[in-house]
Amino acid sequence: MAFNKRIFDLILALLALVILSPVLLATAVLVRIFIGTPILFKQQRPGYKGRPFHIYKFRTMTNRITLNGSLLPDAERLTRFGRFLRSLSLDELPELFNILRGEMSFVGPRPLLMEYLPLYSEEQARRHDVMPGLTGWAQVHGRNAITWDDKFKHDVWYVDHWSFLLDLKIILMTAGKVVTREGVTQEGQATTEYFTGNRK
Q1: Going by DSSP bridges, is the β-strand pair 52-58/40-46 parallel, antiparallel, or unpaired?
Q2: Do residues 177 and 143 touch, judged by C-beta distance below 8 A?
Q3: Counting Cβ atoms within 10 Å, is residue 30 exposed (0-12), middle (13-18) or buried (19+)?
Q4: Cα separations in angstroms, 174 against 38, 68, 148, 182
Q5: pLDDT digits (tens), the chain, 200 positions
Q6: Rounded CA gap, 75 and 57, in Å?
Q7: Torsion sign (Cα): 117, 118, 124, 125
């Protein structure tokens, strides 16, 4: 089944890159104009079994810093154009190349931050028993608007119930969520609050 999922990911990612290539190019140009260089945001994230890889996204924030050289909070660096990109999930499009490289799948738990790994409970860490995804069960059930605990419960549920039909359902549901722009940010946050641990 894992092999079939990989073949599906490859075919869909190639088709998406061909169809969306004008969108990718236009977005890259607009990021260069409104935010600057580099155009892509690159960050190490944990993948399958927690193995690190570099995720790629279009930049949505500036590199503005404080007087002591630290980056300003996300809310102060996130630009209006960046909010627009996030609202339509256009910033996520470069992750199609992560899928081609075999580092991500179309559907799976979202790859979070490396520093979260030691904060997970044993149950929460099971989210890494599958490949991380461009979208997932948690993304179509609230995305950034739900609590961390709920996100991880959805992620583990997906691990236990994965099927090809479930992946198709999530992809279709994701399209609807993107159109309605649901759950893009958490209330009171530029994106979502930092996970500080919940070892149950």
Answers
A1: antiparallel
A2: yes
A3: middle
A4: 28, 41, 19, 10
A5: 566 899 999 999 999 999 999 999 999 999 999 998 999 999 999 999 999 999 999 999 887 766 676 777 777 788 899 999 998 899 999 999 999 999 999 999 999 999 999 999 999 999 999 999 999 999 999 887 889 999 999 999 999 999 999 999 999 999 888 877 665 555 555 567 889 886 44
A6: 18
A7: positive
Strand-pair partners of 109? none
Question: C-alpha 87: how far from its chain's center?
Answer: 13
Q: Give the global pTM.
A: 0.87
CA 10 from centroid of its chain's CA atoms:
18
Report how far residue 42's alpha carbon sits from residue 160's, in angstroms, rounded to the nearest whole number.
30
Closest alpha carbon to 171 in 15, 54, 40, 3: 15
- Angle at which helix 80-87 crosses helix 2-34, to 10 degrees, equals 160
Query: Which residues have CB under 8 Å from 141's CB, separation 6+?
Result: 150, 154
The three-class DSSP label of residue 147 is coil
List the structure tokens of 51: 């193995």
Task: For residue 127, give the amino acid letter.
Answer: R
